[in-house]
DNA sequence: CCCTTCCGATACGGCTCGTATCGTATAAGG
DNA sequence: CCTTATACGATACGAGCCGTATCGGAAGGG
């Protein structure tokens, strides 16, 4: 039976693609206007010129609706080759921060993450639409830097390489998100440069598989 | 007039301190049970054995109630002198992560931050109760490392020192928060060690006031 | 042309919010 | 002791939103 997945719906009236984009646009616009907490399904429906029923036919609740609307914004994240590791990092930091400072992303990203804490389905959507997509950029930038000779190549142990990519991802995305949304201070060129300096020199050390120069902590066995 | 602030209320029945702690405990317990989004004022009141009126007499809404309940958890964050910069960082990363992984902090921190995006009053409370408190730890750890000779001393420019402390704060807190709440992966000893290695070597470079070794990005003026 | 599915409109129960009210309880001051 | 001022518990209330159900009609596929 080769035709199970490729035909989810094959008969009947198809869903309106116009309604889809109208809903997405209305959701993002509503996020800008009233923010996450005051956003209601009824308001989005009215703004999109759609019945509330149509919303619930596509998304189970507010969380899923918003995560889809927001995830699309992450599509614009790219990593053009800027010629050096430093320029690549600085560029992605600035473009990521620019996206985060847009009002429709600002509140909703945190809200979606918070919501996903108690909702495994939502968490998976966040992972696919946001986390994995960003992580791929890190992987890509690292490969480029290795090709340029700016970072040491992988030493066979792919698990360790993955751990390092995960670490870099959390450091970059975490710092930018935290600066923007928690500290609530702007990511300007100066901050991006200082951060990039820190990261590049840290990377050089963390990437060397022969063990870092500094000895590990608690050498005396004081397992506090 | 020396007696303006010290006498906020001087006549009438004082507020019940027992009710205060009962409400805080009930709020944290409710956060564990049902999470932020499903937490209701009525439920907290019933759980605390208090009338709903009493809640609204102390906090204007759910956001303020929760931010006070959560902020108290940050009081336990300390920075004992572990003897070296590396041990200090690793220790604070692990203790911060441990706190974040507790269920009552997990969802609520993000939710409060998201809520504060559209609520300046709440934002100020978050800043006082959480951000500034953590930032002080960074300042403290940096001073110790300077006293030990592990980091170069301040070079007069206190503004630059403040910028650096802000950067370190966002990098540490951001990475731990992002790893825990967005990537949803545990902060174990191995991760903490790898992160600390990265940060220490990055710090050595970013702290040198004579300008970082690497030249700033986009020297050709390609302001993309 | 028929069948299936989607659409808009409307109504509904249930829940939560935040406020108001009222009688009672608990302090300080006279 | 008695007055005054505030906090408390209980209850009720309007308003808003959620998510579902129902309905007649519309729009494609076979």
Average pLDDT, all residues of chain A: 87
CATH architecture of the largest domain in chain A: Orthogonal Bundle
Element order, helices and strands of chain A? HHHHHHHHH
User: What's the total helix number of chain A?
Assistant: 9
The name of the CATH superfamily of the largest domain in chain A reads Tetracycline Repressor, domain 2
Per CATH, what is the topology of the largest domain in chain A? Answer: Tetracycline Repressor, domain 2
- Termini separation of chain A comes to 59 Å
In total, the number of strands of chain A is 0
Largest β-sheet summary of chain A: none
Q: Which pair has the most extensive contact? A: A-B, 69 and 68 residues
Q: How many domains make up the 3D coordinates of chain A?
A: 2
CATH top level assignment of the largest domain in chain A: Mainly Alpha
Helix/sheet category of chain A: mainly alpha
Silhouette of chain A = elongated
Strand content of chain A: under 5%
Radius of gyration of chain A: 21 Å
Helix content of chain A: 55-70%
The protein's oligomeric status is: homodimer
Q: Which regions of chain A have little confidence, pLDDT < 50, spanning 5+ residues? A: 1-7, 210-224
Features:
homodimer; disordered N terminus; DNA-binding; 2 domains; Tetracycline Repressor, domain 2; Arc Repressor Mutant, subunit A; 224 residues; mainly alpha; disordered C terminus; elongated; 9 helices
């Amino acid at each position: 039976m080769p035709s199970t997945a490729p035909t989810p719906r094959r008969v009947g009236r198809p869903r309106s693609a116009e309604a889809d984009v109208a809903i997405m646009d209305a959701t993002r616009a509503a996020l800008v206007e009233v923010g996450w907490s005051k956003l209601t399904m009824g308001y989005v429906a009215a703004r999109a010129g759609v019945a509330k029923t149509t919303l619930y036919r596509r998304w189970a609740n507010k969380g899923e609706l918003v995560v889809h609307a927001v995830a699309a914004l992450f599509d614009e994240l790219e990593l053009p080759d800027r010629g050096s590791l430093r320029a690549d990092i600085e560029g992605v930091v600035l473009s990521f921060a620019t996206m985060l400072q847009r009002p429709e992303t600002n509140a909703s990203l945190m809200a979606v993450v918070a919501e996903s804490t108690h909702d495994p389905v939502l968490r998976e959507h966040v992972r696919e639409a946001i986390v994995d997509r960003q992580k791929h950029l890190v992987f890509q930038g690292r490969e480029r830097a290795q090709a340029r000779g700016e970072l040491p190549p992988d030493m066979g142990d792919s698990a360790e390489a993955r751990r390092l990519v995960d670490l870099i991802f959390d450091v970059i995305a975490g710092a930018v998100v935290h600066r923007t949304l928690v500290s609530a201070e702007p990511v300007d060129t100066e901050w991006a440069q200082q951060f990039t300096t820190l990261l590049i020199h840290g990377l050089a050390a963390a990437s060397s598989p022969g063990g870092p120069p500094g000895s590990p902590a608690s050498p005396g066995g004081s397992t506090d």
